[in-house]
């Protein structure tokens, strides 16, 4: 976008005046921010409309990415960068005595996701638009999203996240494009001359209202759409006579029940009502999204039989896998197709990404709940299941054990991963090792049946958000040294390797890192009143809290270090600051107990003068995108220590790598591919391999007591969890102790502990060699370009979705 400072200032003053009837001198900080945002949206909107018109006119094949999460982060700065007007805006506002950085801080963090799944979806949206691919998102407009985390006396408390208390600046409500989603009731199939027609009785009808958010590409001409649906009571069901008679409670109860669908991300599913709400959420946005797509497609006047030629739909993890049943419903019931034609279109249209091998994430719904909630969809899935069983039976000569393991409905449950696999033409894992585990173990029977459907697409991150936006000085250094082509092609980052022995470049790297660390030091002092040494090693583990991610291994090592320092205060170690950031699911008591242990250990260590601040521990409360944008550029060590074979890919590992951190890792997920790039000398690897873990699990040959009995340090650590060292309540950490003693250390924390201690000592030794450490950082940055989501999206577009880049200017 071409914009000079004077033109911007005129536009901004006019927008501020028209919107709030105020001058820059009189307006509040909030009004200044809102005026800027509305002006930037004006700048984007013209290209947004032109993009949609171009797609329609040229009948471009479009892809729709269905995901439960889209963790976008703040958008204003990204828009300014992608429009290439940030400097002009900053200078223009300065002339008006307005600080752009202050305005940027006014923007709320959209609470539309939790962790890696949502951040990946956001990265993919950015890359699709930046590369000029016709690709959109579809999800839920969560009014409160994931909870706000508050640490009170060391415990996690979940507070309401009211991020939408004001209208979200970037969204546009489209009530005229609302659709109706049905739940419950009864469905009777009627034979008619034109085929079987379903009749619905006693259904609950909910209005799905779309809110569109522009996804602006860095090419400054493509603006795709993230469409999020909000659940509302249809206006025609609001009985004014009832309200006038005073029967408010009946109306309020109904309104609350409907709106609950789009209130909270991942409601607690430990109860029946929680499970039911999750199921309704998933069907709600899938049905609304598919209806919206089909309605738009029919305006092209192309034959419904060509639907998959113009539309691709991607199922991001199992949450949207009900799309198989819903697309079939629409094609059968609304479009009147026969079964075989509808099934052919469905399979050709849908593709599925599996993000985990953990059984709890492979969603399964109770059959009776499914029947009560979406009865017509269950009818269709039962028929899909019946036909699939016939297919498998013919192939495997009635091998009922194999049939039972693969079928969709079994043992009173509807298995959603199986539905997604059977109903999609492509199934991909998200890292090479993850895909191989899917093919050879978790989904082996499906792989034997459909080998042509399975493929790998390693995850990626957008450098525009995680380098250019968050670490601009490093971005400038890397792109200047790597050449002008690296601005649009991160694969050219590899040219940065030429400067691995350049002392000036290494010194500049060091200064940039220190500056980023000083920002964190200031933040931690202001928020937690903890003094952090910016010259200490910043050792960072920030991610969702789960047993397999092994925050427990990390804190055990910190206790080990503390014990060594108590025994010998003169111990010569490089000062180390350990950062944690994580939210635990409200019903995941073990995870919440680990948070309590981390905060308790931090309280003891940070207030013990005898160790002379050689180690500090900081728990970053309410971890999300904005905190990630602060801590990732400052990280020296990237903790990627999941139990091998459990982490599908990871994307935090890539963000830290791109920002010049050294990865401390097991060979799990995308860590393997990072290792393939940088090798032993630029990464610290430890622990069991994936195959070793799977063998121990399969043979049930691991006995944690064998490790414990031979390791006095571990014995002391576990004893300290119950002797009052870190809590006056000696039963405080019983959940962790039961996880070890009662469950048998299922994530091999004790097994990998000695190797982890050795790996941490290597980190200490490497860091003492200042030049050598900086060279390691540079090598990681240079190789990080491979992990750009641009590379991932090009492969998805070419090999799965078959969509083409659009160049509107040509």
Gist?
It comes from Candidatus Cetobacterium colombiensis. The protein is an alpha/beta fold and 810 residues long.
Residue share in helices?
40-55%
> Mind summarizing the main beta sheet?
10 strands, mixed
The name of the CATH architecture of the largest domain is 3-Layer(aba) Sandwich
CATH class of the largest domain: Alpha Beta
Report the end-to-end length measured between terminal Cα atoms: 17 Å
Q: Tell me the number of strands.
A: 23
| Structural shape | globular
Low-confidence stretches: none
Mean pLDDT: 95
The name CATH uses for the topology of the largest domain is Rossmann fold
CATH H-level superfamily of the largest domain: Glycogen Phosphorylase B
Number of domains: 2
Tell me the radius of gyration: 27 Å
- Class inferred from helices and paired strands: alpha/beta
Structure annotation, total helices? 33
Percentage of residues in strands: 5-15%
Family: Belongs to the glycogen phosphorylase family.
Catalytic activity: [(1->4)-alpha-D-glucosyl](n) + phosphate = [(1->4)-alpha-D-glucosyl](n-1) + alpha-D-glucose 1-phosphate
Organism: Candidatus Cetobacterium colombiensis
GO molecular function: 1,4-alpha-oligoglucan phosphorylase activity
Protein topology:
Layout (H helix, E strand, L loop, with lengths): L4 H16 L8 H30 L3 E5 L9 H7 L3 H10 L4 H5 L11 H16 L3 E6 L7 E5 L2 E5 L12 E2 L5 E5 L2 E7 L2 E7 L2 E13 L6 E10 L7 H5 L3 H12 L12 H27 L8 H4 E6 L6 H12 L4 H11 E4 L10 E3 H7 L1 H22 L3 H7 L2 E2 L2 E3 H7 L4 E3 L2 H11 L1 H6 L4 E3 L6 H7 L2 H11 L20 H26 L8 E6 L8 H17 L8 E6 L7 H18 L8 E5 L5 H7 L5 E4 L11 H7 L3 E4 L5 H8 L5 E2 L4 H10 L4 H6 L2 H9 L13 H9 L6 H20 L1 H15 L4 H13 L9
Parallel strand pairs: 1-2, 1-11, 2-10, 11-12, 12-16, 16-17, 18-19, 18-21, 19-20, 21-22, 22-23
Antiparallel strand pairs: 3-4, 5-9, 6-9, 7-8, 9-10, 13-15, 14-15
Helix pairs in contact: 1-2, 1-4, 3-19, 6-33, 9-11, 11-12, 11-14, 13-14, 21-32, 22-23, 22-31, 23-30, 25-32
């Amino acid at each position: 976008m071409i914009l000079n400072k004077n033109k911007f200032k005129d536009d901004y003053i006019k927008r501020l005046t028209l919107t709030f009837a105020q001058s820059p001198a009189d307006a509040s900080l909030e009004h200044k921010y809102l005026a800027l945002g509305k002006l930037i949206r004006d700048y984007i909107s013209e290209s947004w409309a032109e993009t949609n018109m171009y797609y329609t006119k040229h009948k471009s094949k479009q892809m729709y990415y269905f995901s439960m999460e889209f963790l976008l982060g703040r958008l204003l700065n990204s828009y300014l960068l992608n429009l290439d007007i940030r400097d002009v805006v900053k200078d223009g506002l300065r002339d008006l005595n307005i600080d752009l950085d202050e305005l940027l801080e006014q923007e709320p963090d959209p609470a539309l996701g939790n962790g890696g799944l949502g951040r990946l979806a956001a990265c993919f949206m950015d890359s699709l638009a930046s590369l000029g691919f016709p690709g959109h998102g579809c999800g839920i407009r969560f009014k409160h999203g994931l909870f706000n985390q508050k640490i009170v006396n060391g415990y996690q408390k979940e507070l309401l996240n009211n991020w939408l208390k004001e209208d979200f600046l970037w969204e546009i409500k489209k009530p005229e494009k609302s659709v109706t989603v049905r739940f419950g009731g009864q469905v009777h199939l009627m034979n008619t001359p034109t085929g079987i027609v379903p009749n619905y009785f006693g259904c609950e009808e909910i209005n799905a209202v779309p809110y569109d958010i522009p996804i602006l590409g860095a090419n400054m001409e493509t603006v795709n759409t993230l469409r999020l649906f909000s659940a509302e009571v249809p206006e025609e069901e609001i009985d004014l006579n009832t309200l006038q008679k005073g029967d408010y409670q009946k109306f309020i109860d109904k309104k609350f029940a409907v709106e609950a669908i789009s209130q909270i991300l991942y409601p607690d599913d430990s109860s029946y009502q929680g499970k039911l709400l999750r199921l309704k959420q998933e069907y709600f946005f899938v049905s609304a999204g598919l209806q919206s797509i089909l309605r738009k497609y029919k305006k092209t006047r192309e034959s419904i039989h060509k639907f998959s030629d113009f539309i691709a739909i991607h199922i991001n993890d199992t949450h949207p896998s009900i799309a198989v049943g819903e697309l079939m419903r629409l094609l059968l019931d609304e479009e009147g197709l026969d079964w075989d034609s509808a099934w052919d279109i469905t399979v050709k249209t849908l593709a599925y990404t599996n993000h985990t091998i953990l059984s709890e994430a492979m969603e399964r719904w109770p059959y009776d709940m499914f029947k009560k909630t979406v009865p017509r969809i269950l009818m269709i899935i039962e028929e899909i299941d019946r036909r699939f069983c016939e297919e498998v039976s013919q192939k495997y000569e009635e091998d009922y054990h194999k049939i039972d393991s693969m079928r969709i409905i079994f043992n009173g449950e509807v298995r959603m991963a199986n539905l997604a696999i059977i109903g999609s033409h492509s199934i991909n894992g998200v890292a090479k090792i993850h895909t191989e585990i899917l093919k050879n173990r978790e989904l082996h029977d499906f792989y034997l049946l459909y080998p042509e459907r399975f493929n790998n697409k390693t995850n990626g991150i957008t450098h525009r958000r995680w380098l250019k936006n968050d670490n601009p000085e490093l971005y400038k250094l890397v792109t200047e040294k790597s050449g002008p082509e690296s601005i649009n092609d991160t694969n050219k980052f590899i040219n940065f390797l030429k400067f691995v022995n350049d002392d000036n470049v290494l010194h500049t790297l060091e200064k940039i890192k220190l500056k980023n660390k000083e920002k964190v030091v200031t933040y931690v002092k202001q928020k937690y009143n903890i003094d952090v040494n910016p010259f200490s090693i910043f050792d960072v583990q920030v991610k969702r809290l789960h047993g397999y991610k092994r925050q427990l291994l990390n804190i055990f090592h910190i206790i080990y270090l503390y014990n060594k320092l108590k025994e010998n205060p003169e111990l010569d170690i490089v000062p180390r600051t350990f950062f944690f950031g994580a939210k635990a699911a409200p019903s995941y008591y073990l995870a919440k107990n680990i948070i309590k242990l981390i905060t308790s250990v931090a309280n003891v260590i940070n207030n013990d003068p005898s160790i002379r601040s050689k180690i500090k521990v900081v728990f970053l409360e309410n971890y999300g995108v904005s905190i990630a944008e602060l801590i990732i550029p400052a990280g020296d060590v990237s903790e990627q220590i999941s139990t091998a074979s459990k982490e599908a890919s990871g994307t935090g590992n890539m963000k830290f790598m791109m920002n010049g951190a050294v990865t401390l890792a097991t060979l799990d997920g995308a860590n393997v591919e990072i290792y393939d790039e940088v090798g032993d000398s630029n990464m610290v690897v430890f622990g069991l391999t994936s195959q070793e873990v799977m063998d121990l699990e399969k043979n049930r040959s691991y006995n944690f007591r064998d490790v414990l009995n031979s390791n006095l340090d571990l014995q002391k650590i576990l004893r300290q969890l119950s002797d009052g060292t870190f809590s006056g309540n000696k039963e405080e950490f019983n959940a962790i102790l039961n996880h070890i003693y009662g469950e048998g250390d299922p994530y091999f924390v004790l097994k990998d502990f000695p190797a982890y201690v050795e790996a941490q000592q290597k980190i200490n030794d490497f860091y003492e060699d200042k030049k050598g450490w900086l060279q390691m950082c540079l090598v990681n940055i240079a190789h990080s370009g491979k992990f750009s989501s641009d590379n991932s999206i090009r492969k998805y577009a070419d090999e799965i979705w078959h969509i083409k880049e659009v160049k509107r200017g040509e």
